[in-house]
């Protein structure tokens, strides 16, 4: 039998449990200050007055039944259990605090009062029941259950409103954030209410102690079940979202750098006063710290050490940006990575991401940045460390730096470390706001430490005797000042002595020596080395070592028929072969630094590697490989197994996926296209898919846009058509869901048999993998990551995993291919692991709705157009494609006016409706999309929508001033590049002739004064304009370029843009133009009084701009900007002109003297 003491112990344990879970002694003490209902009523009255004073009427009276029930309960336990004041305070204190906190947000207060009203209805009338049944041990024990229930409710609400990581407290879109985060807590409160209702039944009936004990245990189990079920569901949603976004993880890169770092090389950095100050959040240090330095100075290794140092104590988000992952070098990709790193251990942030707008998160840099900023505001001390910022496209890094700058201004506890070269745009952004350390001025000790470590390992590998070793240590000591890691190529004292005669002075000199050795080698070795370097530099994604080994053996001569796939019988040491400018990272070949690529492809060096020709050679190697017996249709399983074990399929997956990507880059000239066409014909002959299904789900216009080869189109049409068909197949919207298990749904969409053969190879490969005796052979031919993803378009299909466990963890969430067909359902993109689970879900949750849809479809026929219109918009808002289809095909829907449907489409575009809905609402015979649709599509940043809209846009709309300005400022570089490509396509189709020849626009029309004005002092826009100018160069005559130069001088006076236009062929002294009259760029700049105008005038004069004027013109030197030029440059107009004349005269005299010397000789 329960005693009074044991009941009191239950109350006391509930109190202690509440205190432990609260984890905030100060908050607990504040709760204890509220001891009665009168304190709550007094606080509520003040709240009501304050709300009324702000004009925000709220019905707080509806919680009176709740408060009355709680008061009744408090009195009962005080009398029958002898509850102490502290126990009672835990009833009243949280109510007062939660009402006060939630009153700051209308919707939060409404939700809390709704919950309290609901609990009030569930609670019994305690006083009345006690009067009826009297005091018994069973009733006292039941009262303890209610106490636990109330404290559960208080714990959940306090936890929600007091969390420092609770984003709703700082978010600008607080209403939306509350709606996102509250439902999970509301579900947990529903568990409490369910328990209260069960316990109320116990109170109203004759109850045994055993039943009460069971109820107590059931209460604990209910929360345990809720936590497990809810956590699992939410985690699955988060993992599905993560899979959909596919953020880059840099953990492996960090681990690789950590393992390769030489201990002690970063000691100087941690002794640096500015860096120590930056690390300390209590100091007044600048938010930004810039590790600046030349290539190869060790910035990346220092960044890795810094990351490890701060990760131990604080939130740390980081990225190692590298040219080897070109698709990840965008501002959006970097922010995605930082977001999912931040969410990794933060449940609230995971909830926020899951409930965010997925399309916006996936495609909008601004939206993604706003989510990350929300996290950073409340996450506490956080470091963001980005290495290799200079390896990103200049426009993308400007976007990224702008968002990081916003973070630094809005987030108090944030530190930013950037590691890069001193590029102009980065310097302009960081030079005043960052602490800067030039690594190459401070790292001499680190280099010595590195040389000592590497030389010791090298001598140990070479096994030199003690005498030789001693002499080498003396000889090697000077290398520390110019260490470029040549040791692997030095094999004797003679090699070292030769190297020491003239040490490399810089990185370019070091590259020159290594490259010279390669070019001086005998022909077969030389050609192989140059192929390796060229292919590393031009490959769409890095080749693995086994792939490169096989690619080098393929004979690319199109006149020879390759009947047998070359076998690799021995490994190649590519680092020894090509020198220390290449490295192997995770089994993939890459340059040690992106400057290697810049060097070997530079036309300024002797024997440079032509990037275009390297791409052509790699494409031809892949095509020649595919034209061999690998696509032989009559191979049986035993032959495929034999080919796998002997390594014939090393290159197969890479060749299948990337030959078409490389073909797009090959120049459209007769020689290269003819060779390409001959190999393509052989591939078609051996690998044509006779069951090819040409259905295409995607935008064929985009494919036709990205590939254009006039020679193939005119001379070898079958090869051209096949290339287009393969590109379409590889851009199919559903490719991410294709796997080995649903092969029948997609392999015949491939015009070649490569997909069928790939599936066949993978099935046999997986079977071989089950027998560990095959692992040695498989590792030799296919790399150490044996376990491959079963989704061919997943990057892990090629990269694979080292262990079966990692593979299974990846495939567990990746393999949810059975999607719910109802788009509004979360499982339409989360999916299920099996068809059975998907069907059970449909039967349980959507079958009734589906039947109602079918049964009610005829109801639309009875609607008037006036009634159909609001229904249409409601269905568009809900993105209910099925019902919109039914409505539009019904009699009522067919009576809807065209402008009503057009308005619904405009709304769908502007409010982020699905592309399927937008297509559905498009008029059947629409030739061109209205201009307003195009503008709205661009504002959304939805890349798939823009890809669909742009090809359907009238050509003249591409260059409307408001569109070109909007394009210049758009977030997505991908959308901007699409716009450029469409302009190029139109120009190629119609030529650039004068208007009377029927062209829709000229290049000259694109570059308006307004466009250059909008780009003034904006690094992103200037970078984009330079890109567009380069792409359109072939369509611009000197006249056009001259006009553009004048417009630049008329508007932004951008020196960078002026230099770009002049380098493309703009004359500095044009006297013609459509809009500029006889004005020159120099005169246009001289009419402005800005610093930029003064700098531009100086540049133009020193590069030969005419300073004299015609008799009928005003003297340029008397223009207002020319008169004030000394204010900015420190020299007058006349002094500047004299300086140019002196330089010009010296050059003339120098050339004359040189000519006379030649004559004498």
Question: Brief description of this entry?
Answer:
The chain is mainly α and 1161 residues long.
Distance between the ends: 125 Å
Flag low-confidence runs: 164-173, 480-488, 847-858, 992-1000, 1072-1077, 1157-1161
Mean pLDDT, as a whole number?
Answer: 79
Strand arrangement, largest sheet? 2-3-4-1-5
Return Rg in Å.
36 Å
Shape: globular
Strand content: under 5%
User: What structural class do you assign from the helix and strand content?
Assistant: mainly alpha
Percent of residues in helices comes to 55-70%
The strand count comes to: 7
Our count of helices gives 61
Largest sheet: 5 strands, parallel
Q: Any descriptors?
A:
1161 residues; mainly alpha; 5-stranded parallel β-sheet; two-stranded antiparallel sheet; 61 helices; 3% strand; disordered C terminus
Describe this structure in words.
- The protein is mainly α and 1161 residues long.
- Helix content is 62%, strand content 3%.
- The protein has a 5-stranded parallel beta sheet, with helices on both faces.
- Strand 3 (382-387), helix 19 (394-410) and strand 4 form a beta-alpha-beta unit.
- Helix 15 packs parallel to helix 18.
- The chain is globular and about 110 Å long.
- It starts with a helix and ends with a helix.
- Mean pLDDT is 79; it is low at 164-173, 480-488, 847-858, 992-1000, 1072-1077 and 1157-1161.
